[in-house]
Amino acid sequence: MKNIVLKKTFFQRPTLEAAEDLLGKFLVKKTEQGEVAVMITEVEAYDGPKDKASHASCGLTDRNAIMFGEGGYFYVYLCYGMYEMLNIVTGQKNYPAAILLRGAEILGEEEKRLNGPGKLTKFLNINRAVNKKLADKITGLWFEDRGVKISPKYIERTSRIGVAYAGPIWLKKKYRFVLTKLE
DNA sequence: ACGATGATGAAC
DNA sequence: TTCATCATCGTA
Question: Which domains are delineated in chain A?
Fold first, then answer.
């Protein structure tokens, strides 16, 4: 089975489409000991300038500028003063959208669940050093398709987490994708 | 249920 | 420059 590195064009399409497709793909980090890979099991989409839950809803700022760029770049920021949140920008240039990686699973002998964006970034030692960087091997953090097949019936679509402040309209949007189990 | 903890953005 | 806000987690 060949591992295919996802190109940035993978993210340059409708956010919800890319978000759903990202389930079962792998996030790979280059470390001194070698490559560490986790399978993505939970994501949330933040789509467009009108999405009140998105950082881009108040227009272009220094922090969210990368969201307005083309897809395939990382957007990392600090939340609650202690957790780095990892996002991957999606869509075309000047269309602010991104996917928040909320959960992943470590496969192999030491199986472990990384359920929560803070745990995910802590485990892989991801921080703002990769902010605005392209998701490729040069950056040292990228995505791979390792041939894991996902059945649509194991994909759950729910409301997003912690976005009550955005109002009921945006709370109702089913922008969160969870992979419940493998085939 | 709640507090830790700091960057961010908007108001002043 | 100051202040309210926050896409969380671990401990109770």
Answer: 4-179 (3.10.300.10)
